[in-house]
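Checklist before submission:
- one chain only
- standard amino acids only
- sequence pasted in full

Submission:
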Amino acid sequence: MTFDSRRWAFVGFVPITIALLAASCESPPSVVRESPNIVGDPRATDEAERATETNLHGLGYLGSDGFTVWDDTEIRQSYGATNFREVSVLDEYLKAAPGDPASVAHSGASNFDFWCIESAGLDKYCVAGIGASGDFILERWELVPATVASRSEPAARPLVVTQSGEVLSKDFQKTRIFEGPLGVSVISVGFDPEERFMLALLTDDQGLTTIYKFDNVKGAVPIPVYDSITYPELATLGHFNRFDHKATLSRVWILSALSLYGDLQMMMFDDDNDGEFDGEPLIGNDEYFESVGYPVVFPYWDSLDGSGY
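Returned file contents:
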């Protein structure tokens, strides 16, 4: 979920349905990856298998209320934001016992204007923005069970409990991953599903756009991954999506284009899912990716965003 970097309004991005891409784009780089060894055509995957694969990671989507939603068999969790300062989360209990709450709302306020929110799954969030001094700020926000002692105003925010005594209320536990003069515009952030690292796509005051990687620890050192000097297309890309490629089992991060710039995409590969990107990214449209063995249609990919490919 991303705020437009030009600060027009809060905008939630649905992970792009890649199969819709069709227009032409700049020629891809000369780097050639070996085409994956695909046996048969995964596009024949039936609906039952597709549903099973989606449920492995939850279902993420944008509803009309602008919330992104994660589902599992017990809970549906949606999240959004208000006024660039507060994160709102709603837990809906899909198997609530009679008399128990069917849903519980949680919220947390920041002391800086955040531009982007992303989730690694239930209760796991990263929040990024620009502080009053102009510094880039990246934080990890984790929802943890609340206690009376953890609440500064327990009377105003009473705990919600089930009839059996289970506490359903949660509070945000926040960790500042980074703060410093790294960029003046936050385009997108990404959160590794295994929670090992975060990514930030930033533009500095000279117009350079860079993907930075941060270990998921307090005071992490930003590591430049790719920049718009080497890959000018980065200046037109706007949102991270996470997938596993079914044939190669590679973890692939896909950056999709901002809506103003058509269908261009960048694929970044972590071939053995060790948390490190391998080789150079591939840049192109759907026709190009089909030609190199990475068709950008659902059955080839296992979405880690719950986008339903």
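Reviewer check: Residues 2-303 form one domain.
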